Amino acid sequence: MGALDNVTIGMTAEKTVTVSSETTVGHFVAGMPEVYATPMTILHMEMASGFAVASHLPEGFVSVGMDVKVRHLAATPIGRTVRATARVLKNDRRSVVFEVEAWDGDRKIGDGIHRRGIVNVREFEQRFGVKQLANESGLI
Predict the structure, then answer these.
(1) How far apart are CA 98 and CA 7, in angstroms?
(2) Planar angle of CA 78, 108, 138, nearest 5 degrees
(3) Per-residue pLDDT tens for 46-88?
């Protein structure tokens, strides 16, 4: 039985966040506008992708980000709600490819493709000499 046997094309998930000062480019880079930062957009797209498959992986397996191709299309000010979505496009023996989008209401603010590798946590820890942090999301 493979780690991706229960992951099917079309599976979806989303992550919803409210833009705060801490998620703006101005928070990270002095003098920049206080609008939703591109790295935060990517983070929330990655989280949605991980959520889409986490409960369908065998015990002891997680998904890890390995490739991101994202366009950030529009600025979003503090106080707005952003909804990041992910949909499984394909999977192979070791990874899953997602179509990702981010929305501010009915306005698309980002889109792209994201690939997540599927790893056995114990083997990953041994290979890289790291320990998994306590994490309820099933993401590394």
Answers:
(1) 12
(2) 75
(3) 999 999 999 999 999 999 999 999 999 999 999 999 999 999 9
Buried b (16+ CB within 10 A) or exposed e, 26-50: eeeeeeeebbbbeebbbbbbbbbbb
Which residues lie closer than 8 Å to 119 by C-beta, 6 or more apart?
A: 61, 62, 63, 64, 140
Give the three-state DSSP class for 103.
Answer: strand
What is the strand order of the sheet 81-91 is part of?
A: 12-18, 81-91, 95-104, 107-120, 61-72
Return the sign of the alpha-carbon dihedral for residues 11, 80, 63, 70.
Answer: positive
CA separation, residue 70 to residues 2, 7, 27, 67, 122 (Å):
29, 23, 21, 10, 31
Contact 118, 63 (CB under 8 A): yes
